[in-house]
Amino acid sequence: MPLVPMRTMLDHAAENNYGIAALNVNNMEQIQAIMMAAEETDSPVIIQASRGARKYTNDAFLRNLMLAAVELYPNIPIVMHLDHGNSFDTCQSAIEQKFTSVMMDGSLSEDGKTPSAFEYNAEITKKVVDAAHAVGVSVEGEIGALGGIEDGHGAGLSQEEAMEPLTDPDQAEQFVAQTGVDALAVAIGTSHGAYKFSKKPTGDVLKIDLIEEIHRRLPNTHMVMHGSSSVPQELQDIINEFGGDIKQTYGVPIEEIQRGIANGVRKVNVDTDSRLAITGAIRKVFAQSPEKFDPRDYLRPAREAMAKVCKARMIAFGQAGNAGKIKITTCKEMVDFYKK
Ligand code: G3H
Ligand code: 13P
Ligand code: ZN
């Protein structure tokens, strides 16, 4: 089967109440790890590349690695998604490079850092939706800006001020109506990277109740949770045991993600956990077998460690067992769907 659009996959997840891990990649081993886990668990997959990943890997390598995955795993539906597109041109070039889904992150300005105005976000996202849907490609938008409430406290902000960047449900409704996005990323207090929370997060810093509220208002909108690595203790420990220096930190507990999934979250972004797994495995080989210098000796265990994390997420989010159940549509077929 060809690379498939994300919309059909998320619709199936919504109809059957599960979530799908959207896993970031930068190289061949990461794509292989995801596909190994997908085959083992019979999971549909969303594989995503950031702008940084596209620059590092090069679109031609990325596209052909993804096509190799399609060829080698004909029974697994695979979405190739652009993570955090910062402009119309970035999204357009991804579509030209055969991505079947793009994120236009208009919650930030084109510099990818400065929070933007609602009007800018809605306008640029709508422009991407029009161009993408014309060729059957799915679009994810974002409303509210990602970032930790704890970080805000650390910077001296009150709870109210620290919560300001979170998604406003009124704006979420307006944004979905104005743009027609297929999926909506919401800001609920998570942040990218390993350092999300200084202790196991409670409801004052991780706002799953906000997801519940948005889901009540937009029951048919597929929500996306970014910054959703769980930063498992054992992965921190392996890195530190073999010479690394990860300060004690806490991620998003799996049971909180599952609460999100029960309330309309269909795409769960995970990158950091894969990075931690890979780094731990490589450090272990370097520390235990300093005489080794064949990259396969450390990249193979790294790939296996990432596959193990992917497999665990696929099972926990409920996508396992669903690869064969999704009725596959092509981007071409989605063109008519969007015309209706
Ligand atoms: O958005 C965050 C993802 O983890 C991608 O990270 O921009 O370093 O590739 P990156
Ligand atoms: P993590 O850093 O929590 O893995 O989040 C990844 C992400 O949101 C990619 O867009
Ligand atoms: Zn993200």
Can you walk me through this structure?
The longest helix has 23 residues, at 295-317. Helix content is 49%, strand content 12%. Helix 2 (28-41) packs across helix 14 (295-317) and helix 6 (118-133) runs parallel beside helix 9 (169-179). It has helices at residues 6-15, 28-41, 51-57, 59-72, 88-96, 118-133, 149-154, 159-162, 169-179, 208-217, 233-241, 254-261, 272-288, 295-317, 331-339; strands spanning 20-24, 45-49, 78-85, 101-104, 138-143, 183-186, 222-225, 265-270. The chain starts with 5 loop residues before the first helix and ends with a helix. It is of the alpha/beta class and 340 residues long. 1,3-dihydroxyacetonephosphate (13P) is lined by residues 24, 83-84, 192-193, 226-229, 269-272.
Secondary-structure blueprint:
Layout: H1 6-15, E1 20-24, H2 28-41, E2 45-49, H3 51-57, H4 59-72, E3 78-85, H5 88-96, E4 101-104, H6 118-133, E5 138-143, H7 149-154, H8 159-162, H9 169-179, E6 183-186, H10 208-217, E7 222-225, H11 233-241, H12 254-261, E8 265-270, H13 272-288, H14 295-317, H15 331-339
Parallel strand pairs: 1-2, 1-8, 2-3, 3-4, 4-5, 5-6, 6-7, 7-8
Helix pairs in contact: 2-4, 2-14, 5-6, 6-9, 11-13, 13-14
The structure holds glyceraldehyde-3-phosphate (G3H), 1,3-dihydroxyacetonephosphate and zinc ion.
